[in-house]
Amino acid sequence: MCDMSNVTRMTRRVPALGPGKKDDERGGGTNTGLITKTRPKTKKPSLYRVLLLNDDYTPMEFVVWILQRFFNKNQDDALQIMLHVHQNGVGVCGVYSYEVAESKVTEVLDAARQNQHPLQCTMEKE
Ligand code: TYC
Predict the structure, then answer these.
(1) What is the mean pLDDT of residues 96-122?
(2) Shortest CA distance to 62 belongs to which of 90, 86, 92?
(3) Is the CB of 89 under 6 A from ligand 1?
(4) How many beta carbons lie within 10 A of that of residue 83, not counting itself?
(5) Burial level of 82, CB count in 10 A (0-12/13-18/19+)?
(6) How far apart are CA 101 and CA 105, in angstroms?
(7) Which pTM value belongs to this model?
(8) Predicted confidence band at 50 (pLDDT cuts at 50, 70, 90)?
(9) Is the C-beta atom of 118 inside 6 A of ligand 1?
(10) Atom of ligand 1 nearest to the CA of 86
C-alpha cells in the first residue's frame, strides 16, 4: 500500500482531447481530462543549539581542543568561543539537527569524563 500522508495532491483540469487525438496517445489511458501530480511535502528539520557551560576547573586549553575536535572550529574561533563561555557562563558551539546535536553533547561529555574535567554541555531548541 502507498502511504500518501506526506504528499500534497495537486489536480488541474486539462483541455479535452482535440479531434483525431486518442487518449492513449498521451500515455494516460483513461479519458478523464484530469492530471494529478503529487509532490513531497518538505518539512524543515528543527535545529538545536549545542551549548558549553562555564566552570571553574576545566582548563581553557581543553575547552579549545573540544571546540576544534568536535565542532570543527579553527584555533582563533575556538579561543573566542571559549573566552565567551568563560566570561558569560554559556556559549553556542554549533547548531545541528536533533540527532547530530545529541551526538555532539555525548561526545563532549564522554571526552570531559575521560579526562576528569567537570565540563558540561547541553542542547536547546533554536
Ligand atoms: N573557566 C575555566 C577556567 O578558568 C575555563 C572554561 C571555559 C571552562 C569554558 C569551561 O566551558 C568552559 N579554567
Answers:
(1) 98
(2) 86
(3) no
(4) 14
(5) buried
(6) 6
(7) 0.72
(8) very high
(9) no
(10) 7
